[in-house]
Fold this protein.
Amino acid sequence: MAETQSPDTIKIKKYANRRLYNTATSKYVTLDDLAEMVKSGVEFVVVDAKSGDDITRSVLTQIIFEEESKGQNLLPIKFLRQLIGFYGDSLQSVVPNYLEHSMNAFAQNQESMRQKMQETMGGIFPFGQWDDIGKQNMAMFERAMQMFTPFAQNGSAEPQAESAPADATDADDGDDMSALKDQLKALQEQVDKLSRS
């Protein structure tokens, strides 16, 4: 899904030699520079200098790859495996929206944690609070992934074998679709509840 751009969005051009050019400053930049821009909240879009195609997603993914290769591992292996499993899955279109909501909720939670840390700088540092909130967030992601695999049981993400005969009626398909819609609705309610808390 395309991200809406504000008038202040900076255009970065990527050339065939892989060099990145910031049109706002008229200077060449590196992936590290772009990572710092992201951390500073600077909005930018990366376009292929020749075709004009928006390649922001692939460049941001490359930044994540570079950070992970430096040993700053934010993405657990289990999460990466689950994420890869959703490519081509019938729920693929739901995953980006859910992850965006989840990360927004996490970012709001992080801001609250930073505020508490500033309030208690003169006293004992609240390591326990950070630990508890981190565990809650990881549990939230694991629950979300389990909800995205509604046919999984006993921790396995493999779909169960069909038990209905080959000539099952359309009503059975309707029941499955209805159950899936109910699960998606419950998931959305959970995300909304987390975003408000």
Observations:
- The first helix runs from residue 31 to 39.
- Residues 152-169 have pLDDT under 50 and may be disordered.
